[in-house]
Every structure is written in C-alpha cells, then in structure tokens.
Amino acid sequence: MNSLTKTAVACAVSLAAMNAFAETQITVATVNNGHMIEMQKLTPEFEKAYPDIKVKWVTLEEGVLRQNVTQDIANGSGLYDVMTIGMYEAPIWGERGWLEPIDTSGSYDVNDILPSIRGGLSYDGTMYASPFYGESSMVMYRKDLAKKAGVTISDRDSWEHIRDAAAAMNDPENGVYGICLRGKAGWGDNMAFLSAMANSFGARWFDMDWKPQLESDEWKNAVNFYVDMLSKYGPPGASGNSFNENLALFNEGKCGMWIDATIAASFVTDPKQSKVADQVGFAQSPYAVTEKGANWLWSWALGIPAATQKADAAQKFVRWATSKDYIKLVGAKNGWGAVPTGTRQSTYENPKFQKAAVFADAELKAIKSANPNDSTLKPSPYVGVQFAAIPEFQAIGTTTGQMVSGALAGSLTVDQALKSANRSADRQMRQAGYY
C-alpha cells in the first residue's frame, strides 16, 4: 500500500468515525406552559443519555402553536421533528397518516398510561401521540376567603351556588375577585372552559344531523350565565385572560375561585410560585342540569410528524420525555409535587407523590369522571368533551370563541354572538358536505 493509498484509507476511516458520532438535531415545538418549560431545562439530561442528539426548542403561546403545527403538518413541511399536540389532533392526524405511530415497546410500559388518556391519543388502537401530561378541570378555591365569606365549596356544586359564592368572596376594593375564568378567544382557550360548562347546561355543539346548535336555549342559558357572572365578579379585562393569565392572578391571591385545568394544582400549591399555596382547596366541577361533560378531558402530548427526516431520534426523545423515569427525574430535581401528572397510574400509586400532592385524589377523580364518548345530555354524533373531534371544529371553535369573547367584552350581546357563531358554523358544515 503506497503512502497515497494509506492517506486515503485514513481519511475514509476518520470520516466514518465522524459520521458515526455526528449530531442529529431535532426541533421540538411546544407550548409555553410550566411543565414544558421545565422539560426544556432538563434537556441536558436527555442529551447526556443520547450524546448524538441535540434538541432545538421552539416555544410558542398556545394559539400560535396550534396554527403553526397545523400548517406544518398539513403541508408536510417537516419544520418540526416533534410537536406538542393534544387529544383533538392526534386521532384525526393519525387517521390521515400525518403522524408516526409512537414506539410503545419494551420498558415504555404503555399499559401504565391511564386508559382514557391513552384512548384519546389513539386511532384504531394505535397511539399517535404520547402524553406529557393529562388533565381534566376542577374548582380551585381559597379556603380562607370562603371561610371569611361564610360559604362552602363542595364537589359538584350547582352553578348557582358557585355564582353566589363568587359574589360573597368578591372584594375588588382590595384586589380580590370572586371568580377567575378563561375569557380569551380560542377553541382551546375560552371555548375549552365554556364547552364543558355548556354541556352541564344540557347543550351540545351539533345535533345528530350535524347541524350546529349554538342558538339553542341551552347555549344561551350557559353563555348568559357565564358573561353575567364573570362581568360582575371577575377581574377587569377578563376577555383577555386564558390559563397563564388566570394562573398568575390566582397565585397573586387575586381570585376567590378558579375553575380550570387540573394541571394548575401543582402550581397553585407550590409556595415558590403561589402566595396562597397553603390556602388552596379543590372540588369537582359544578353543573347546572347534568353532570355529563361538566369537566373536560385533555392531554398535551408529543407527536412525531410523518414528514420528519429524523424519526429515530424523535422517537427516542418522545419516549424519554413521557417515561416513568422522566417523572422520577422531575421528582428528584424539583420535588414530587412538581411532576407532570394525569398520565400514568404509577404516579398516583407512588407514596412520594401521594405525600407531596395534596391535589392528587381530586385530580385523578376528575380525569376518571370525564367521558369523551358520552359528554352531552342530548344525543350527539361526535366524540370529545370540550371539543368535537372533527377536522372542521378548529375553525368553528375559534370563531365561536371570538364571538363569545366579544360578548364578554361588551361589544356584542350574547344572542348576537351566538347567532353569528351558528351562522358561521352552519356555513362550514355545509361546505364540508355534512348536509
């Protein structure tokens, strides 16, 4: 072998070695919620376990995230290798072949995932997104303010009782508002809350012929009640508040009650974040005429778009971030009251979690009580509690949210808002060929 050949061979070996250890960079799109921000902080732990993979984060506000990932996956652009999606997107996109099936083999222990959460992220028995955390909704309230006002908050109170309690606790002169609720427009913002509330008033999005029902008495009763209560006993500018804004208000001690995602419980009981951590009580969501659909069911989950060129690395990240070991990692780093919840039965059976999480029983009870297959008093043709699992719903829910937010802000009457929303929904359903 001459020197030239030896040099060529050496270069080839060196190049092969470099390629063997070449970094694969995956881009993860996620929402700017507390647990996701913590996942980003723990990225070095993943990169330590997989030194050939680097993670680039794109963190967005909820509404912007939904728009971006929907556009990306529909166009097959491949901008993201992992995207944060939920129970609405996973089965629809899975059916269309837009998502890679999640690798649930071996030590991942897919059967440990709560059945309702696993089912909501699956299509035809295949899981197309893996739950990072799961949630329902429940009442979080200030025990000290309730006692001072002489009111009690219990599981499954009537909405009338909640309104009266909000009135009793309302003290705007001292910066305390009786109730904080989502008002910001969006199918996953105000309409997530309001759909569940409307269910309890006997409402449904569509009848069995897929005709929108937004002008029904049930919807009018629910939205009028909501607008009146939040206008009288809610914080100023409520039409601009969603989860993060209300979380900040509650943690500052400005809300007597807050009805929202169970995942908030770990934040409002954390003395590092909440000024009222030792005064928080929990109760199951209220209802008006039926308990059906009174509290929602959701999971923020990690999905892998079929257009990715880095599926293997993406699978490794998803399995890491949604594993039992990740939950243990967060528990060890930040305390067991701070772990992402609502996904695995083993979390709720862990004595360390039970001791740290005063909200555990209430959270699990809420999640287990939500039934996406039977969420309305009258028969409905769709699956979903706070959404209808059809492709058209995203646009319909967004428009409805804008109309309702306008009613809350006072620029429309409730009747005008629902009439406009119903007309828009009817047009969408006709164009889509439902009737």
UniProtKB/TrEMBL annotation:
Transmembrane segments: none annotated. It comes from the Bacteria. It holds the Pfam family SBP_bac_1. It is found in: Periplasm. Gene3D superfamilies: Periplasmic binding protein-like II. GO terms for cellular component: periplasmic space. Residues 1-22 form the signal peptide. InterPro entries: Bact_solute-bd_prot1, SBP. Its main location: periplasm. Keywords: Signal. PANTHER family: ARABINOSE-BINDING PROTEIN-RELATED, DIACETYLCHITOBIOSE BINDING PROTEIN DASA. Belongs to the bacterial solute-binding protein 1 family. This is Sugar ABC transporter substrate-binding protein. The lineage of its organism: Bacteria, Pseudomonadati, Pseudomonadota, Gammaproteobacteria, Oceanospirillales.
